[in-house]
Design a protein that fits this description.
Blueprint: H1 2-22, H2 30-33, H3 35-41, H4 61-73, H5 79-85, H6 90-102, H7 117-128, H8 139-143, H9 162-174, H10 185-190, H11 195-204, H12 222-227
């Protein structure tokens, strides 16, 4: 009986070893290590248009680096991100930011623009002209004429799901935990917009076609650089 038990144990051990040796080795690469990011952001970073999670592929590296640090350090809060990023170094976060910034995945098709002609015209005035009476700069003055962002720290406004855009405006206006409590120029500007304007922006932006790439740095007016200095910096960031 002891001999039979010994033989069975030996066979089981050999089977386990064979299964282990047959399993493919997992490559120790950055692409493999950031698989947890695509659980939420989607395979190849493409989530459905109605999903909440934003596109991060192709965003300026400085912007991604700042957001990763903000989540890690509690200046911007989302529990899943906080858990994933805790204890990661600035060097590793920068490597992640540069990796996602380099990706060139296709964008989703634009959503339908359900705004009236008058609502569309009002939104496009905010986008391209702003409102000097309320001290609201044009969206394109910061995010570039094509609204594709400005390197290295300002993100694109296009290719984002409606739900995400709406939630971010809500956070800026109401101090929600998703955007954190640290004041910045976007929270200041968003609070000057009416709810009707916010609703229209969240419909208009996802309906726009994607044309061009993020603009190069140096395209911002000096007054906007000063106004938004809290988001136009990244200590430890190297282009």
């Amino acid at each position: 009986m002891k001999l039979i038990v010994f033989i069975l144990l030996a066979l089981l051990s050999g089977l386990a070893s064979a299964q282990e040796s047959a399993s493919p080795a997992v490559p120790d690469t950055l692409e493999q290590r950031i698989k947890s990011c695509t659980i939420c952001h989607g395979d190849e970073d493409r989530a459905g248009r109605d999903a909440y999670y934003p596109r991060i592929a192709g965003k300026p590296a400085g912007y991604l680096f700042n957001q990763l640090r903000n989540f890690r350090d509690g200046r911007r809060y989302y529990q899943a991100m906080a858990i994933l990023l805790e204890n990661l170094s600035d060097e590793y976060l920068l490597e992640m930011a540069q990796y996602f910034s380099s990706l060139k995945y296709p964008y989703p098709e634009p959503a339908a623009n359900t705004l009236s002609a008058a609502e569309t015209q009002a939104v496009e005035t905010l986008i391209h002209t702003g409102d000097t009476v309320r001290d609201i700069p044009a969206c394109s003055a910061c995010h570039g004429k094509a609204l594709m962002g400005v390197k290295p720290f300002i993100p694109s406004l296009l290719g984002l799901p409606h739900a995400y855009v709406a939630a971010q405006f809500g956070g800026w206006r109401n101090g929600g935990t998703m955007r954190g409590q640290t004041p910045d120029c976007m929270s200041e500007i968003a609070k000057k917009l009416s709810q009707e304007e916010v609703n229209a922006l969240t419909v208009w932006l996802p309906s726009q076609p994607i044309v061009g790439e993020p603009a190069e740095s140096g395209t911002l007016a000096p007054e906007l650089v000063q106004r938004c200095e809290t988001i136009l910096s990244g200590e430890g960031f190297i282009q």
